[in-house]
Design brief:
The protein has helices at residues 35-46, 74-88, 119-131, 144-152, and strands at residues 6-14, 19-28, 54-57, 63-69, 96-104, 110-118, 138-141, 161-166, 170-177, 180-188. It is of the alpha+beta class. A 3-stranded antiparallel sheet has the order 4-6-5. The chain has a 3-stranded antiparallel sheet with strand order 8-9-10, with helices on one face. The radius of gyration is 18 Å and the shape is globular.
Amino acid sequence: DISSNRVCGALQAVDKKKITVENRACAVYEDRERMVNALGEALAGLSVSEISCGLSLTPEFFFFRSLTIPFTDHKQVRSVLQYELQDNVVLAEEDYLHETILYESSSEMTGVLAVLIEREKLRSILNIFRSYSLDPQTVSVSGMAAITNFIRSGSGEKQSFKVVDISVRYAALYLIKNGTIQLVRSIPYDNRE
């Protein structure tokens, strides 16, 4: 899990009945330039290589766009989505990767939450993992998995609520409406005062 000022990892053993944390490591850094060293320090502390792993990045690494598309058929939505994103993102299409969450906005519209990351930024982080013979199988937004699990557990199903995750340099706001994550924003702030 990489955030604005720390890198943490856990080595888990998965048994048929339980998951056990066998080792963990965390390294703190002051600025992005020192993140590479902190990530290497955390990975070295775990003493792992060539295992299945995932990468979780806090929302400040991503761009989020909330769109409404005038179709309800998901195939139609996906066919126009790249054009809608081009109009709403300042980067060229080849400079970012994206994943989307589709949800019913109305009987005639589909809501889209687009999660985007700059290719080069992701590539530089993945290269550090590869230098330790690790190739993350998934890349996710920190917090979204926990919120999704909460919704799927039935506790948040069809409910509307907000989650605010506050870290040292950023706050992440998640808006859940009718049991679907519909808005995510990363809000930077100066905490030196």
